[in-house]
Write a structure and sequence with these properties.
single chain; alpha/beta; five-stranded parallel sheet; 4 helices
Amino acid sequence: MSILIIEDELNIRRFVSINLKARGYIVNEAGTGADGLQHLRDARPQVLILDMMLPDMTGWQILEVMAHEDDLKTIPVILMTASVQLGDHIKYPNVVKHVIKPASVNTLLEAVQNVVD
């Protein structure tokens, strides 16, 4: 199972990555929206963990790009942020979970496990 994390805060990104790798997941990381979109297009991960507030673009912009690209629009997305209203993601059917930061390891792992099951 391959997972892409798009998160600009290095400590959070590493925390998530280390915990997922420890459970056998293949993890790629991106610190900006542009890098994240490139990883999405190149690697086509099975799950995306997406921060909504990035330095170069918003998570909403990434979701909008994904919605218009056939190879990306079905990738399940877990939003990981403190700033999203729960109903805001309704127009993006590939958003499967919303995790509030700072998320515990158990919360995050449960979200990923729900996507892969």
